[in-house]
Specification:
The complex is a heterodimer of chains A (113) and B (113).
Chain A (H helix, E strand, L loop, with lengths): L3 E2 L4 E5 L4 E7 L6 E7 L6 E7 L4 E3 L3 E6 L4 E6 L8 E8 L8 E2 L3 E6 L1
Parallel strand pairs in A: 2-11
Antiparallel strand pairs in A: 1-3, 3-8, 4-5, 4-9, 6-7, 7-8, 9-10, 9-11
Chain B lengths: L3 E4 L2 E4 L5 E7 L5 E7 L6 E7 L2 E4 L7 E4 L5 E6 L8 E8 L8 E2 L3 E5 L1
Parallel strand pairs in B: 2-11
Antiparallel strand pairs in B: 1-3, 3-8, 4-5, 4-9, 5-6, 7-8, 9-10, 9-11
Chain lengths: 113, 113
Amino acid sequence: GESVGLHLPTLSVQEGDNSIINCAYSNSASDYFIWYKQESGKGPQFIIDIRSNMDKRQGQRVTVLLNKTVKHLSLQIAATQPGDSAVYFCAENKANRDDKIIFGKGTRLHILP
Amino acid sequence: DAMVIQNPRYQVTQFGKPVTLSCSQTLNHNVMYWYQQKSSQAPKLLFHYYDKDFNNEADTPDNFQSRRPNTSFCFLDIRSPGLGDAAMYLCATSRGRGRTEAFFGQGTRLTVV
């Protein structure tokens, strides 16, 4: 069945270092992937997305990498700041077939001073 | 300006007493979603609408119903809330059909007493 999961539930990173959050997915039919950031008590906030015809996409301080061969994607955050503390979810969608957005388990990112 | 608005932010209901959560959007998006999120877990899709077409997830309990009277509004009805239904309920919207970046509201935290 469909599943989107994350390798690590908690990640602690020194302020100023780069963070890498990983996600594995099992549904090869998925062709659109989204990273969300969720701060405590708030709804998920869109960070960046990538379609399956791409391997890499960059935003402001964030980069998403997609490896379709091993069904893996990652979110890289450059120069991590205290405001990056949150839970990060990857989500998947079969963009051309349905509108469902299925979330993975999430990784909590702790920023160490 | 808020684009997906959920009311109320906090809702307390009695065990077994029907409760309705509401969501409105100013984005004129085709798709509206309802997710349930329990503590330290990923959002779980309950159902979604594409326009007036309702799509229920197979594992969504019958206790959960939804209504979408127009493009802007969507309601989540819990007919007989149990203690296990205490959670954050998230509403989201997207344009759909391959343009599924979803925008989330701030959520309604439901407490069942």
